[in-house]
Amino acid sequence: MSANKLDPMSSTSQKHNDFVAEPMGDKPVTALPGIGEILGGRLKEKGFGKAYNVLGNFLALNRDEKRFRDWLKDTCQASSEQQSDCYGCLKDWCANNL
């Protein structure tokens, strides 16, 4: 079995793999790894109801991990693990689709 070429030390969730493998489309923000119903609700309240809204902010922050993670923490009180899951997914999605 081949190792994850992006980060051999981590394994990704099925949610991550599914998200990265598909077009962005009109997915709800809760389709993003690390973003469940509670964080999704907080993001929706701030105008980030779709995964592409969060992707847009990720790109606007120049894909910078620290800035994006800080934004998630400030915007919806995401934990460090949730920030990491969401950042990693968007990073991998961009690598596969942009």
How far apart the termini lie comes to 27 Å
What's the CATH H-level homologous superfamily?
A: Barrier-to-autointegration factor, BAF
What's the average pLDDT? 90
Oligomeric state: single chain
Helix/strand-derived category reads mainly alpha
**CATH architectural label:** Orthogonal Bundle
Radius of gyration: 13 Å
| Number of structural units classed as domains | 1
Tally of separate helices: 5
Query: Element order, helices and strands?
Result: HHHHH
* Strand percent estimate: under 5%
The total strand number stands at 0
Largest sheet composition: none
| Overall geometry | globular
Fraction in helix: 55-70%
User: What is the CATH topology assignment?
Assistant: DNA polymerase, domain 1
Biased composition (Polar residues): 1-14
InterPro entries: BAF (IPR051387), BAF_prot (IPR004122), BAF_sf (IPR036617)
Protein name: Barrier-to-autointegration factor
GO molecular function, one term: DNA binding
Could you describe the 3D structure shown?
- With 98 residues, this protein is an all-alpha fold.
- It contains five helices and no strands.
- The protein has one domain: DNA polymerase, domain 1.
